[in-house]
Amino acid sequence: MSFPHHQTRCALLAACIFTAFALARPSYAQEDAQLDQQIQAIAQAHHGKVALYAHNLRTGQTASLSPDLPVKTASVIKLGILLDAAEQIRAGKATLAERLVLTRPNQVEGSGVLGELTPPIALTLGDTLTLMVILSDNTATNMAIDRLGLDHINATLRAAGLRQTVLYKKVYVPAQGPMPPDQPLFGLGKTTPREMASIMERFATCHLALDNSAALPGDGPICGAILHMLRSQQDRDSLPRYLESEDTSEHGSAIANKTGALDAVRNDVALISTKAGPVVIAAFTFDNADQRWTGDNAAEQALGRLAQAIVTRWSPGGLDADAFPWENPLLPATSHAAPTPAAASSQP
Length: 348
Description:
17% strand; globular; alpha+beta; 6-stranded mixed sheet; Beta-lactamase; disordered C terminus; 37% helix; 11 helices
């Protein structure tokens, strides 16, 4: 990606300031025992199981329930695909503007729209990832996996220090080759709440360098493009359920999230911009008694109550969409530039 000279210097300065801030933060996390009790009470009232990890990115406080328990990802594993896409874009191996072609063999059932359209259809990688996120489009997901490479995605997850997070296969496609013995148990993917939260935290802080090196000048727009996708995600029935009530498609949401669902599973991972600072929540429910695919599914209501309890505890004043620099997390919220998501497409 090309920048005018002064913009490059500003971006580098912002990256240095951010890195210094990140290094100055406490290396320990302070568990919020009172909030843990609230989370436990909500989980006990739910007819199913709950695992959760929440992190207040401003104060360092955490709250959790079985945060290191391996769980089925369902579609939240698509956050891992986004992370690998970001790594390949910043390495010059991919661009959001490059063209992919939808073919009939990649069309699968389930969520999304591409499976219902007539191929061949040309899409950019950016459009494909957007559909994968905002509609959880399974066909778009398979196109992205083909382009990025299943092995490369999993190598990126390992390089990010995620030992329990795996994408086993494409969606609605049988697993290929030798599989770990736990694959039949977890299906599409496996993770833990803490590990999946760490992926969202990388986008929130724009810490894309897996070797912990300094941010590149183009990292901010890459993160901005990804957060734009997540902020436009259209399933609002879980963590956002009791936090936002207006039409966020017109005014911009304070929540960037990715959901995942199976008959007995409802998951949601979110970055929430509150008046007291950004909060990341990774919440997983499983073995749920209510297996209805309706908006009032009991697990989705439980996820909503969990998010409401966390935000009320850590930010009594509620949400503030403008308090977070969505377009470029490396810049201050009050003065960030507004590049379009496509601005990251040529970033090496």
